[in-house]
UniProtKB/TrEMBL annotation:
Residues 72-127 form the KANL2-like probable zinc-finger domain. GO terms for biological process: chromatin organization. Component of the NSL complex at least composed of KAT8/MOF, KANSL1, KANSL2, KANSL3, MCRS1, PHF20, OGT1/OGT, WDR5 and HCFC1. Non-catalytic component of the NSL histone acetyltransferase complex, a multiprotein complex that mediates histone H4 acetylation at 'Lys-5'- and 'Lys-8' (H4K5ac and H4K8ac) at transcription start sites and promotes transcription initiation. Required for NSL complex stability and for transcription of intraciliary transport genes in both ciliated and non-ciliated cells by regulating histone H4 acetylation at 'Lys-5'- and 'Lys-12' (H4K5ac and H4K12ac). This is necessary for cilium assembly in ciliated cells and for organization of the microtubule cytoskeleton in non-ciliated cells. Its main location: mitochondrion. The keyword Phosphoprotein applies. It is found in: Mitochondrion; Nucleus. This is KAT8 regulatory NSL complex subunit 2. GO terms for cellular component: mitochondrion; NSL complex; nucleus. It comes from Baryphthengus martii. The gene is Kansl2_1. InterPro entries: NSL2, Znf_KANL2-like.
Length: 173
């Protein structure tokens, strides 16, 4: 880009503007001075902190088998990503914080791993306690015995309910 400025023919005004824009785009979002120094230090800290995790992830992904033993036989299930155990044995890992064993019920204990959620005491679907039912359907209209034994003269027939003469309907404002 700088060789264009020194050429024998020179640059027109439009070409100079385009060159300025090109140089600005080349420096766009580049860090300079203190900001560049702090950014480099942050990157170095992240690299040092993630070296142990990256090395652990590399060994975990290279084996990809669960490290748990059941009756002196190693589990053959695939381990979870970034973990050393499978979903069944994940609670044996003391460093994990995403799963918790199910408490079960009073009659029977359950150790099935359950993902932590916003619930205070996470449970597996088998031991999940449902909230009380809000709607209770009515069994039927309860008719008091006094009304059942009432005389039938109190009730009007359909013919008696019809008006005897038609009255004009008037509507007011």
């Amino acid at each position: 880009g700088s060789s264009l400025l020194t050429g024998p023919e020179g640059l027109m005004a439009k070409e100079r503007d385009n060159l300025k824009r090109l140089k600005c785009l080349r420096r766009y979002r580049q860090r300079y001075g203190v900001e560049a120094l702090l950014h480099r230090q942050l990157k170095e800290r992240r690299m040092l902190a993630s070296d142990g995790a990256a090395q652990q992830a590399h060994t975990t992904r290279s084996s990809q088998r669960c490290l748990a033993f059941v009756d002196d036989v190693r589990c053959s299930n695939q381990s979870l990503p970034m973990a050393r155990h499978c979903l069944t044995h994940i609670c044996q890992d003391a460093n994990q914080t995403l799963f918790k064993p199910c408490r079960g019920s009073e009659e029977m204990s359950c150790a099935k791993p359950v993902p932590l959620s916003l619930a205070e005491e996470p449970c597996c679907p088998l031991h999940l306690r449902l909230p009380p039912q809000l709607y209770v359907p009515e069994q039927g209209p309860a008719v008091p015995q006094e009304l059942e034994a009432a005389p039938t003269e109190l009730y009007l027939s359909a013919a008696e309910l019809q008006p005897s003469e038609s009255l004009p309907l008037e509507f007011s404002d």
